[in-house]
UniProtKB/TrEMBL annotation:
GO terms for biological process: mRNA processing; regulation of mRNA splicing, via spliceosome. Residues 79-116 have a biased composition (Basic and acidic residues). Residues 1-69 form the PWI domain. Pfam families: PWI. GO terms for cellular component: spliceosomal complex. One of its GO terms (molecular function) is RNA binding. Residues 65-116 are annotated as: Disordered. This is PWI domain-containing protein. It comes from the Eukaryota. Keywords: mRNA processing. SMART domains: PWI.
Length: 116
């Protein structure tokens, strides 16, 4: 949702959570209709599709594992990819330490001593 709106909106996030909690059986069409005013029809559709994938993944994960506290498989994959991406970016930020050949150091010291 944050990517679609280009900003973080806590009110909208809470609104979606409340809609899901209030419905005994969540209805993706209703949720999409409710969100269209905030996100526009195209983004609301995309968001609800992604949300529904997460909800189904969570449900399947709970059934397979018999543990409600487990993270949905979809989120585990997603967070793993994000962690890998962050690690790659961090490695790219740190320049490799370049070693200076000893010959160059000797030559620099010779020039330095000649100047003094």
């Amino acid at each position: 949702m944050t990517q679609m709106m280009k900003l973080e909106d806590d009110v909208l996030e809470e609104y979606v959570i409340n809609q899901l909690e209030e419905m005994k059986i969540p209805d993706p069409k209703k949720i999409q209709i409710y969100l269209t005013g905030f996100l526009g029809s195209k983004n609301a559709k995309i968001f609800v599709e992604q949300l529904w994938e997460l909800l189904l993944s969570a449900q399947e994960s709970d059934i397979e594992n018999g543990n409600v506290s487990k993270s949905p498989y979809y989120l585990q994959r997603s967070s793993s990819r994000e962690r890998d991406r962050a690690e790659r970016e961090e490695k790219e930020k740190i320049p490799e330490k370049k070693t200076v050949p000893e010959e160059a150091i000797k030559k620099a010291n010779e020039i330095k001593s000649e100047l003094n």
